[in-house]
Amino acid sequence: MDVAVHVFLETERLVLRRFTTGDVDNLAGLDADPDVMRFVSGGIPTSREEIENDFLPAFLGYYQRYQAFGFWAAIEKSTGDFLGWFHFRPREGSAPGQVELGYRMRKSAWGKGYAAEGSRALIRKGFTESGVQRVTAEAMAANTASRRVMEKAGLTLTRTFSQPLPGAAGGHPVEVVEYALNKAGWEQRDQGSAGAAPQQ
After folding, report:
1. In the chain, how many domains are there?
2. What is the structure's pLDDT at 94?
């Protein structure tokens, strides 16, 4: 790729970098897998046109507005392979200092701890460098793998609610869970307070 790589952070096994216009194929391949999209759109893939014209420009737009928030491509250090992405960003209308964590990983990366590793690193950077006070994350209640990632990253269940599934026929409502972690809870956990439950 001839575009300069802007690395946002690194973990033991991952590099999280800014997306570029050269990432269309990476994103199209990720969203073409119905298993990856099962809990996002009911398995319906995102078209290449949508990625090129809507999603990727939206990702790139974050870098113009924020230094510390946005969408980050997850690259496996040992191979240089694109594994998926993380987002760490304020939601529209959310309280100051509150950001949402999200991730989408290729099936080849499942079960290896990559999502939890990247999530923990983003949370640490947010709390220690970016003025974040509270992190939230959402998943379908049935998505046990994603929920496990949230728990491994230190978040705890705060509420359950229903919302329509995007892209599904008829927009049938599904049960969604929200997990959260605030800075005080993270600091308590980070200092190794055994058995102390993080505050929400």
Report:
1. 1
2. 87
